Amino acid sequence: MLRRMILAAAQLGPIHLKDSRASVVKRLIVLLWRAHAMGARFVVFPEMALTTFFPRYWITDQAEIDAYFETSMPSNETQPLFNLARELGIGFYLGYAEKTVEDGRIRRFNTSVLVNAKGKIVGRYRKIHLPGHSEHLLQAPFQHLEKRYFEVGNEGFKVWRTMGAHVGMCICNDRRWPETFRVMGLQDVEIVAVGYNTPTDNLHHPEPPHLRMHHHLITLQASAYQNATWVIATAKCGREDGFAMFGGSCIVAPTGEIAALAQSEDDEVIAVDADLDLGAYIKRGTFDFARHRRIEHYGLIAARTAAVAPSIDSDAE
Ligand code: ING
Q: What separation in Å is there between the alpha carbon of 2 and the centre of ligand 1?
């Protein structure tokens, strides 16, 4: 019996500073209905799906910063989304800024939750690879202050058995690091959900937009294939108060092929009737980890953070 599941990416267009959470949740609900009409059983919403991408701004007032965070999930504003998902029997991934108290102190994370088809939060992920900077770049056209506003995630990369599959999560910049997917691949992941908010322009170096989209797609395709997993990558995109973020939401098969790709930079649902066993032949062959991996030679990957150049000049006489 084939294990088939219709997977969906529910891409969001821009969320402006003036947009209330209630207005955003209304958009998420419309997207959920559209995904339901397409037969979806699991829907991936973007990173920070409830507010504008506020790390683009230098903010000094902590109360102003905290206004972008959720102190509970579900919250009053998002409860209708959880209720509808439960009624429709659809699981989902939702990214948001999390403010919580742990070990007696306030913690702030860039977080996603995994919600099963009964509307229950079964998993949480806190973003580990925080890109950008923490200082105020006075000359820059915009900031990317995730290192200032969030802590590094403290719960690792996990995989949960839910909705009849092995589901893992990561967030945005995590997708650029092969370690992210390999750690989940070593937990036999079958579906990786990743929301993202990616500026169209490179803050530090002139880079053509087509190249940034290329990097986005090759990292997802390579990681899907090298770990024989489905990947659902969902953007929040378009111009948020004038600041451009690219779309490119896509669903990538364990073969590395793009099975669906969003066409717009606005609210849009894409879906694929996925064979969850499609990656099985790859896990039995090319990427049979047990048979082929040689971990005795991989020590540097976990032992060394930054690259160290060879110290000896091999051409020296
Ligand atoms: N955004 C971007 C991302 O990783 C970035 C930041 C863009 C880093 C391009 C490097 C190159 O897609 C977030 N939110 O991580």
A: 36
